[in-house]
Design a protein that fits this description.
Elements: H1 6-9, H2 32-42, H3 55-67, H4 93-96, H5 100-108
């Protein structure tokens, strides 16, 4: 949902979760662990100090959101060139070669076996 002053500011009341105007695949929210922490603490709208979603429901919502199409950040494979310092949930194809299972595990963690 765009803010009333969107034409002047580019601000959103609720930012898009997918598509060209959403965050790209290099943003922190594109990582399972970061997105799931935010979703657990803040969804549904009105959640206060006690989370409403169970952990399982949180991961279900997060995995669904992360499966939606979004823009690509060019050069994101350069963000963590040393595999010893790479987050486990940063799904960059160049980091995994042809290992599609490892790539899916990085993106969806416990959802992919």
């Amino acid at each position: 949902m765009k803010a009333p002053d969107y034409d002047n500011t580019g601000n959103y009341i609720f930012p898009p979760l997918a598509g060209d105007e959403s965050y790209n695949d290099g943003a922190g929210m594109s990582r399972l662990k970061i997105a799931s922490r935010f979703i657990h603490a803040n969804m549904p709208l009105g959640t206060s100090s006690k989370p409403i979603l169970s952990i399982d429901h949180t991961y279900d919502v997060t995995a669904y959101i992360l499966s939606l199409p979004r823009g690509n950040k060019e050069g994101r494979e350069k963000n963590f060139p040393d595999e010893n310092f790479r987050p486990a949930d940063y799904p960059v194809p160049e980091y995994f070669g042809n290992d599609t299972k490892a790539l899916a595990k990085a993106k969806f963690d416990s959802y992919h076996k």
